[in-house]
Amino acid sequence: MIGQENMKIVSHQEIAANIFELVLEGELTKKMTSPGQFVHLKVTSGNDPLLRRPISICSINQEMNQFTMLYRVSGNGTKVLSERAPGAVVHVLGPLGNGFPDDYLKEGEQALLIGGGIGVPPLYELSKRLVHKGVHVTHILGFQTESDMFYKNEFEKLGETHIATADGTHGVKGFVTDVAEQLSIQPDAYFTCGPSPMLKAVESKYETINGFISMEQRMGCGIGACLACVCHVAGDESGLKYKKVCSDGPVFKSGEVVI
Amino acid sequence: MIGQENMKIVSHQEIAANIFELVLEGELTKKMTSPGQFVHLKVTSGNDPLLRRPISICSINQEMNQFTMLYRVSGNGTKVLSERAPGAVVHVLGPLGNGFPDDYLKEGEQALLIGGGIGVPPLYELSKRLVHKGVHVTHILGFQTESDMFYKNEFEKLGETHIATADGTHGVKGFVTDVAEQLSIQPDAYFTCGPSPMLKAVESKYETINGFISMEQRMGCGIGACLACVCHVAGDESGLKYKKVCSDGPVFKSGEVVI
Amino acid sequence: MSRLQVELPGLTLKNPVMPASGCFGFGKEYSQFYDLSLLGAIMVKATTREVRFGNPTPRVAETSSGMLNAIGLQNPGLDHVLQHELKWLEQYDVPVIANVAGSTIEDYEQVAEAISKAPNVHALEINISCPNVKEGGIAFGTHPDTARELTEKVKRVSSVPVYIKLSPNVSSITEMAYAVEEGGADGLSMINTLLGMRLDSRTGKPVIANKTGGLSGPAIKPVALRMVYEVSQKTTLPIIAMGGVSDEMDVIDFISAGASAVAVGTANFVDPLVCPEIIKNLNNILEEWEIEHIHDLRGRSWKDIGEAAYHRS
Amino acid sequence: MSRLQVELPGLTLKNPVMPASGCFGFGKEYSQFYDLSLLGAIMVKATTREVRFGNPTPRVAETSSGMLNAIGLQNPGLDHVLQHELKWLEQYDVPVIANVAGSTIEDYEQVAEAISKAPNVHALEINISCPNVKEGGIAFGTHPDTARELTEKVKRVSSVPVYIKLSPNVSSITEMAYAVEEGGADGLSMINTLLGMRLDSRTGKPVIANKTGGLSGPAIKPVALRMVYEVSQKTTLPIIAMGGVSDEMDVIDFISAGASAVAVGTANFVDPLVCPEIIKNLNNILEEWEIEHIHDLRGRSWKDIGEAAYHRS
Ligand SMILES: Cc1cc2nc3c(=O)[nH]c(=O)nc-3n(C[C@H](O)[C@H](O)[C@H](O)COP(=O)(O)OP(=O)(O)OC[C@H]3O[C@@H](n4cnc5c(N)ncnc54)[C@H](O)[C@@H]3O)c2cc1C
Ligand SMILES: Cc1cc2nc3c(=O)[nH]c(=O)nc-3n(C[C@H](O)[C@H](O)[C@H](O)COP(=O)(O)OP(=O)(O)OC[C@H]3O[C@@H](n4cnc5c(N)ncnc54)[C@H](O)[C@@H]3O)c2cc1C
Ligand SMILES: Cc1cc2nc3c(=O)[nH]c(=O)nc-3n(C[C@H](O)[C@H](O)[C@H](O)COP(=O)(O)O)c2cc1C
Ligand SMILES: Cc1cc2nc3c(=O)[nH]c(=O)nc-3n(C[C@H](O)[C@H](O)[C@H](O)COP(=O)(O)O)c2cc1C
Ligand code: FES
Ligand code: FES
Asked: Given this model, what pLDDT does residue C136 score?
């Protein structure tokens, strides 16, 4: 069930260049069950910015009633958000959408988690859960450059973690798929989130196995009513079938929608 | 000279129902010399609220580099302002306009200061200065009701202070002019700020002596460029002459403009 | 009669507040948040004869105090709307206002005739003002003669009262109102979105795939209010007003300008519970102001209707 | 030629940034804050033949991300403007664009003829779009034939190039642009304010004494941008664009939409130093993006003008 709450900022800090880690506290946390779901934030009261901003849940701490998001300051809304101090409240609508299944793989199977840039955060809660179930996880995380990189240590604690940077300042120079080429493991399924070109490349590289792909789209309502966020259904020749990223996704099975 | 500065909130508290006392600190204070001038505040960054808000200077503390304003939460802008916490900055443009002359009366002469509601604040710095010069001051302060009343003690420290409330919950029941009727003193000049009907009543009651009247008008620029805040010149039959409240005022000599 | 109940051609509204077309789908998503029977009515998403995918994405962009959209009338088509969406809505005690769109006059006639027969459709809202489709839409909404003709033809085939939704992208909104009044409209709904655009400052290219889009939200409220003020003084048609409504004071403003009821669009995206909250607060404030009926405030911006309609305290 | 220098009919601008008419008086007040010679040009307050007091107060009201004004063309009249205001401005090295208004075509002719002879007036901006006066103003700006005729007559008597200021309150801004192009205009300036209104929610009465007013500020930027985008693709006239500009990215957006220069209105009230700040930041960002000249970006929203005009990093 979707809820709404004015949640308190318990911590808020810049963890990489323009990347912020925001921890919120409140009862709404109880409803957050699936990794890969997102929340819709009203970054400030008033009409500018007007709309909510979709941000993925990065990790959930049920005991403390807290959850964490990581976001990049990219435009006006995230800039205003980044200026909010601990103690202030942020209005949260969520959790929204369908996340990554954490029961698709069984104990002992091999998962490959591939994240690009600000698509990395939702993979963190997923990885924790997979590891908890005894699934082997391997991470490939791609960034533009070293100063953009975040949560490397956190992921390394959960499993093998490979870094790619576009400019070669850390790890492999190139893209996540360049790292994938060199991997010896044979994953039983992959889980990916990041920019569309990356998602496309990942989907075609792993054509033969199943995967779960988290999509991004500009949103209005975030709950499935406004049809801002639709994508085409794969293989639909009529061009009339669609899925809503906000409520049917953001996570889809590989081959389900047109990236 | 008008200046601009991001000034720090050093204290901010509700001192009566919906009346806030805001103390700001910064170099701009040095430019504040005349009681009755105002500042133009940008209450928050972003475009909503968009325009600045004119607020009178209530008292100036040159040693501490601080000045105080008192304001009433009346609409969206003042509401947003009231939510800003100490430590935050507010962008200030000022000081603006022409204030009350503090050298019009000589030592030993009698001043009558009449304030209505949120017109009371600018009289406070004025009163301090008059007292400092050895002028005798008498205050008449009008409020809707007792819970709206503020700064009674502060004014009492400076001189005789009479309160009128519209509903009689404190002091005389009625208007400031009702108190004036009963006064035994004969002022050498009056100084007044408040709602227009009050200003009109005061001006006609004291037709025979000189006074200084602080006007209010909705403003755009606050510096004399947009012509939002004009008023007619008294006695001008052409109807074409005008004064700008922001830059020619807000304080005018009695009989100078049409209230 | 309760303080908020409003009678309009074809419609008995519990209160004058309803979601605006396109901002509420066919109600399903919002039914997760509250009981739809609380609403005065529901203006459902535009329905066309055939199923439509609409425009490519991105379809929305934010602007200062507003948003642009170019959904492009995506909808499952007349048959599906009748058999599924409207059917589903029958479980609620709430009148539906069906929003009708098309590319040709025949399209409008066909949809209007069929959809007006649905048991819970109590009125039609004819969308001659969608700025986001190549054919039809706004083309009908900016030419008085075409608008009049369309109104006449739709009226002829509709079994329920017809409200024409006006476009603000015109030199004279009053002229458009006159035209559809002559055409036999039972009421007006206004305004649809203002045509606008946003560019990505870095690339210089439009953010929205359709390039331009319709501007909605608080940014357009002053324009909407002015248009309702103008039109309500010139025609006798009841007006369902919209444009930037997000709280009960906005509703009061539009009623004061001359509207009979008010729709809430973009604000639903900001707060899914906004409609029931407005309804509750509206009732409270009228009580506080001792206004017996919401319509005591109607048109008070231009009518001299005495103390009763003013704030008392 | 420097990165920001722009050549337009009658005007050599150091940079494409200037204050918009009515938002800067005749410059005196802002000269307290910075050297006016920094500006690309100055669009001064509307001048009419006779002195005008304008509308009663209140004349402004705030709206979400915007403001309404109904100043009503208050100005000291042609003679005073010539002898005092323009004279005073001669001390600055900055071209003046004189904004001309009136109630009749003859008014416009008379003011245009006289004011265009002032040595520092390099162009006229003919205000056929003021929404706040009963006669003239917007009436000329919403009828193509009248606009064409007015343009022809003003052109005949003016000794400097003539820019016509278009109103956004029309069904087709392109039609208006065509009309004044036919009439012989040298350029366009757009947009003036959108007609809007605000009510006091408690009393239900208009906040502005004139009842309606012109909406400006960031709220209208999407509408202004769309209109510049449309018109610049259809006419060859250079466009001085305005509507909600408050930073260098807004300037870039309007140039990308097809404008040649940009005016800043309401933003001056928010920050008196906004114009010189925009000019400085604009230069910096073009340098960072390795754009040789601001006009390399012109029209890139609809032109395919290659990599050079895109953000490189
Ligand atoms: C399901 C989902 C999950 C996301 N999770 C994260 C996350 O965990 N961390 C993170 O940093 N970002 C995430 N994003 C992207 C994030 O929503 C945008 O970066 C953010 O909305 C930009 O807002 P802004 O005001 O800073 O930018 P502006 O460009 O000023 O925003 C203007 C409008 O465009 C929308 N918008 C702009 N960029 C995007 C985008 N990439 N995707 C969707 N809408 C956009 C905004 O929501 C807003 O409505 C997610 C997006 C989606 C759809
Ligand atoms: C010279 C001067 C000095 C002032 N000093 C004080 C003071 O010391 N303390 C105080 O509480 N108030 C003072 N005011 C009034 C104060 O400016 C308004 O109450 C305030 O601007 C309201 O803003 P808002 O956003 O809360 O209201 P809203 O109604 O939301 O404001 C909308 C717009 O109207 C303008 N506005 C609304 N009411 C007034 C008003 N009464 N006068 C001028 N503009 C108005 C706002 O500035 C804004 O542009 C002064 C006004 C002037 C002109
Ligand atoms: C995402 C979106 C979709 C819309 N779809 C429709 C539609 O299908 N039919 C219609 O008549 N109006 C449509 N509109 C216009 C709204 O019904 C309304 O007229 C407009 O948004 C102004 O109201 P607001 O400012 O409250 O949003 C749509 C608006 C938005 C924002
Ligand atoms: C207070 C005010 C006064 C104005 N006066 C004039 C005027 O005299 N002549 C004119 O052509 N435009 C006038 N305008 C319109 C502006 O020049 C400009 O076209 C409009 O405000 C849009 O730009 P902005 O959003 O940057 O303010 C005025 C605008 C404002 C806000
Ligand atoms: S964002 Fe509205 S349907 Fe997905
Ligand atoms: S507020 Fe602009 S002239 Fe006074």
From this structure: 64
> What are the chain A neighbours of C71 within 8 Å (beta carbons)?
226-228
Of C152, C145, C133, C155, nearest in space to C176 by CA: C145
> Of the candidates D24, D58, D62, which has its C-beta nearest B225's C-beta?
D24
What is the tens place of the pLDDT at every residue in B38-70?
A: 999 999 888 999 999 999 999 999 999 999 999
**What atom of ligand 5 comes closest to residue A226's alpha carbon?**
2
Contact C286, D234 (CB under 8 A): no
Hey, is the C-beta of A45 within 8 angstroms of any chain C C-beta? no
Strand B210-214, strand B160-165: pairing: unpaired
pLDDT at C130 (0 to 100): 77
Give pLDDT tens digits for D261-300.
999 999 999 999 999 999 999 999 999 999 999 999 999 9
Residues ≥6 apart with Cβ < 8 Å to B189 = B104, B105, B109, B111, B112, B209, B210, B211, B212
Residue of A32, A59, A76, A216 with the most ligand 1 atoms within 8 Å of its CB, for mutation:
A216
As a whole-number percent, the residues of chain A with pLDDT over 70 amount to 100
Is there a contact between C272 and A217 if contact means CB atoms under 8 Å apart? no
Measured by CA distance, the residue closest to atom 11 of ligand 3 is C127
Quick one: CA torsion of B162, B166, B167, B173, rounded to 10 degrees?
40
Residue A113, H or E segment? strand A110-116
Between CA D163 and CA A139 the distance in angstroms is: 61
Q: How far is the CA of A54 from the centre of ligand 1 (A)?
A: 6
Closest residue of chain B to D44, computed from CA coordinates? B225
Tell me, yes or no, if D69 comes closer than 8 A to chain B by beta carbon.
yes
Q: Which atom of ligand 3 is nearest to the CA of C21?
A: 17
Tokens matching residue A94: 């969520």
* Residue B1 pLDDT grade (very low, low, confident, very high; cuts 50, 70, 90): confident
Q: Is D218 in the A-facing interface, judged by CB distances under 8 Å?
A: yes
The pLDDT, as a whole number, for residue D312 is 36
Work out which ligand 4 atom sits closest to the CA atom of D218. Answer: 25
pLDDT at C48: 96
> What is the distance in A from the centroid of ligand 2 to the CA of C160?
49
Task: Give the pair of three-digit tokens for residue A224.
Answer: 């499935």
Q: What is the pLDDT of residues D38-63, one digit of tens each?
A: 999 999 999 999 999 999 999 999 99
Report CA-CA distances (Å) from C101 to C78, C130, C140, C282.
Answer: 10, 8, 10, 32
Q: Give tens-digit pLDDT for A127-183.
A: 999 999 999 999 999 999 999 999 999 999 999 999 999 999 999 999 999 999 888
Give Cβ neighbours of residue A146 (< 8 Å, ≥ 6 apart). A165, A169, A170
**What are the structure tokens assigned to C9, written together?**
């051609």
Residue D136 region by backbone torsions, left for phi larger than 0, else alpha for psi between -120 and 50, else beta: left
Pocket test for ligand 5, best of A98, A223, A242 (most atoms within 8 A of CB): A223
Distance D21 CA to ligand 4 centre (A): 5
